[in-house]
């Protein structure tokens, strides 16, 4: 691996995603796991939740981490079969 590749992998990146968390995951710490398992910094920019356990939750998340951390987290969400509606690169928060 070249020095440029190492520097690029260690550089912090920002990504905004819109995430639908299925009602079957209401008791799971999905967003918390993004922080603890992948060492990401997460800002919940907005959320749409109801008191009903019969509905999904919608979140706009701003994520900060290395490309490897972010890609691993997105794979985790995909493995859970959660819908990531949009991914955008962000210059800053």
TrEMBL record:
It comes from the Bacteria. SMART domains: NIL. Residues 13-85 form the NIL domain. Transmembrane segments: none annotated. This is NIL domain-containing protein. Pfam families: NIL.
């Amino acid at each position: 691996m070249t020095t440029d590749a190492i520097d690029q992998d260690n550089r912090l990146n920002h990504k905004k995603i819109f995430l639908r968390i299925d009602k079957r995951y209401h008791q799971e710490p999905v967003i918390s796991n993004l922080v603890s398992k992948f060492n990401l910094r997460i800002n919940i920019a907005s959320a749409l939740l109801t008191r009903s356990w019969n509905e999904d939750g919608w979140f706009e998340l701003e994520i900060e981490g290395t490309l490897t951390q972010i890609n691993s987290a997105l794979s985790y969400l995909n493995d859970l079969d959660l819908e990531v509606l949009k991914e955008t690169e962000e210059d800053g928060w």
